[in-house]
Amino acid sequence: MIRLDRFLANQGIGTRKEVKQLIRQQLVRIDGVLIERGDHKFDEERCVVTLRDEVIEHHKDVYLLFHKPAGCVCANHDPLHPTVFDHLPACYQRLSTVGRLDKDTTGLLLISDDGVLAHRLLTPSRHVRKGYEATLLKEIDDAQVMALTTGIDLGDFTTMPAEVQLIDAHRVRLYICEGKFHQVKRMFHAVGNEVTALHRFSFGPLSLGDLPQGEWRPLRTEEIEELKEVSRP
């Protein structure tokens, strides 16, 4: 059972305030019956909701893959910066990012309304790997690689051992299972280096492929199943 105002907001019809106004204007019906209260509860799986006599499709568990460009933040609203949701249609403004990427970090971002799956994907104990390509200020050396692959005490937590693949002296691919705030940058800073550019190219079984920056696509059914499989308890 779900409240009518929440249902309409979840379907991207408007904010909670805006949909309450639509209900007060007697524009919403459930199974043909006029509903005048936003807190009216109903079974969204069985009932048909109409707005101005048009059926509101019930969308649940949306999964989007987005190629985040630099310069936007992972928030639904921000008064100072553009957000990733500025790149999405209005019907998806209710979704949430699964984890966050820094403003200057580019790459793969999963966006969904499946809170249970999001929690499982972000829990370090599930060991869902995230792959990053880091460009470094200094040449990376063997001691830095050893520290990264052993685990680093960052004060508030100790990182799990990372997998490091060298691209060249100033670029590496780094795979981690956590996703703490500024983690990759903090890890390199802790070993005496600095990240000058950071790009996430994979998240669990997902990869960007040829998706251009600033573009998005729905996940394929098999991708959703793979995500659920790697995050199972």
List the defining traits of the structure above.
single chain, 233 residues, alpha+beta, Structural Genomics Hypothetical 15.5 Kd Protein In mrcA-pckA Intergenic Region, Chain A, Alpha-Beta Plaits, 3 domains, 22% helix, 27% strand
What's the level 1 CATH class of the largest domain? Answer: Alpha Beta
Structural class designation:
alpha+beta
Query: How much strand content do the residues show?
Result: 25-35%
So, the CATH homologous superfamily of the largest domain? Pseudouridine synthase I, catalytic domain, N-terminal subdomain
| Mean of all residue-level pLDDT scores | 93
DSSP helical segment count: 6
Q: Based on the structure given, which CATH architecture of the largest domain is correct?
A: 2-Layer Sandwich
* Uncertain ranges: none
Instruction: Determine Rg (CA atoms, Å).
Output: 21 Å
| H/E topology pattern | EHHEEEEEEEEHEHEEHEEEH
Give a count of the beta strands, DSSP E runs of length 2 or more: 15
Oligomerization state: single chain
Distance between the termini: 27 Å
The fold-level CATH name of the largest domain is Alpha-Beta Plaits
Largest sheet: 9 strands, mixed
User: Roughly how much helix do the residues carry, as a percent range?
Assistant: 10-25%
| Outline type | elongated
Characterise this structure.
Helices cover 22% and strands 27% of the residues. By secondary structure, the protein is α+β, with helices and mostly antiparallel strands. The chain is elongated, with a radius of gyration of 21 Å. It has 6 helices and 15 strands. Helix 1 (4-10) crosses helix 2 (16-24). The protein has helices at residues 4-10, 16-24, 115-122, 142-150, 183-190, 221-230, and strands spanning 2-3, 28-30, 33-34, 41-42, 49-51, 54-55, 63-68, 96-97, 106-112, 130-136, 163-168, 171-176, 195-203, 206-207, 216-218. Strands 7, 8, 9, 10, 11, 12, 13, 14 and 15 form a 9-stranded mixed sheet that branches. A 4-stranded antiparallel sheet has the order 3-2-5-6, with no helix packed on it. A two-stranded antiparallel ribbon has the order 1-4. The model has no long low-confidence stretch (mean pLDDT 93). The two termini are 27 Å apart. The protein folds into 3 domains: 2-55, Structural Genomics Hypothetical 15.5 Kd Protein In mrcA-pckA Intergenic Region, Chain A (Roll); 63-123 and 205-230, Alpha-Beta Plaits, CATH 3.30.70; 129-203, Alpha-L RNA-binding motif (Alpha-Beta Plaits), CATH 3.30.70. Pfam families: PseudoU_synth_2 (PF00849), S4 (PF01479). Its EC number is 5.4.99.-. Belongs to the pseudouridine synthase RsuA family.
